[in-house]
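Hi Prof. W.,

I finally got the proton-translocating NAD(P)(+) transhydrogenase prediction working! I wasn't sure whether to trim anything, so I left the full sequence exactly as given:
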Amino acid sequence: MQAVINFLHENIEAVYIVILMIFLGIEIIGRVPSVLHTPLMSGANAIHGVVIIGAIIVMGKAESGNYIALILGFLAVVLGTLNVVGGFVVTDRMLEMFKKKK
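And this is what came out:
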């Protein structure tokens, strides 16, 4: 527990930035009209390809005994991949609505 408190104390600026980003994200998403949610979110989910690449780089540079970095990197790759695939599925379903029916 003391290690967590020391980490937070040493990186208090980063903690403040993360908290501000959370509030800013909630405020921005809350003001988007519901009509625009599907196209914006499907495009934003595809950006998670950057998360996948970053997670792969972190896993590649992690020491072999650093299991926390390896597990977190693996989870980031899996969740990022799910988000990218979900973004493409939502986009495909959205585009299907605009095709002419036979």
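DSSP finds five helices and no strands in the chain. Does that look reasonable to you?

Thanks,
D.
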